[in-house]
Amino acid sequence: MKILRFVLVLAVIGYAGWLAWPFMSPFFEGAEPTVATERASAMVEAGGGIPQAALWIGAVALYLIAAFMLGAGNPRAAIAYFLGFLADAVLRLAIDRSSGGGPASASIQADTYAGGGEIAQRSAEAVAPAGLSVDPTWLILGVLLAVGLIIVAVSRRRRRQRQAGHLTV
Q: How far is it, in rounded angstroms, from Cα 9 to Cα 73?
């Protein structure tokens, strides 16, 4: 179970990094801090404004908190994960509704970042090699839900039965 928990921690951190990359990439490209900050703030304004950015950053932060809690063996990691999942689902469904849905409309919006085209396009690119005709929004939400259920199973505390006369450890 510890290996599965370690793999889940890496998967959640990897997904949080993938989700945060559009905001973080200007800082890693070697530009001056002021230029990088301006590009990141332009991404926030073009991507739907402050409410959408708050959901996006909140989802990333909650996924990271869940990963660290899961790594520490805290049973409340599932709560943090599902709060992050909820923010991620609201964000994805809002993007899907505003863009008309589907991989075709996501690739059209990829250049402008309008309506969250960046996350929709990256989701479509992630599913494209599999050749699935399923909408990437629902596929990714289903995978994230399955990971959340696995986190619930892994993070549950198992009670040991004490036998009479034995001290607790």
A: 11
Whether residue 127 is predicted with pLDDT greater than 70 in this model: the reply is no
Q: What is the pTM assigned to this prediction?
A: 0.71
165, HSE (Cβ side, Cα atoms, 13 Å):
0
CA angle 112-115-118, nearest 5°?
55
Contact 135, 117 (CB under 8 A): no
Retrieve residue 103's tokens. 């991989």
The answer for residues whose C-beta is within 8 angstroms of residue 134's C-beta and 6 or more apart is: 127
Of 114, 168, 102, 99, nearest to 139 by C-alpha is: 102
Q: What is the pLDDT, as a whole number, of residue 145? A: 93
In the block, tokens 């943090």 appear at 80
**Distances from the Cα of 127 to the Cα of 21, 86, 97, 121, angstroms:** 18, 21, 19, 10
The pLDDT value recorded for residue 115 is 41
Dist CA 53 CA 39 (whole Å):
14
> Exposed/middle/buried for 168, CB within 10 Å: 0-12, 13-18, 19+?
exposed
Q: Mind listing the pLDDT tens digit for each residue in 69-105? A: 999 888 899 999 999 999 988 888 876 665 554 443 4
Q: What is the DSSP letter of 101?
A: S
Q: Taking 80 as the threshold, does the pLDDT of residue 110 lie above it? A: no
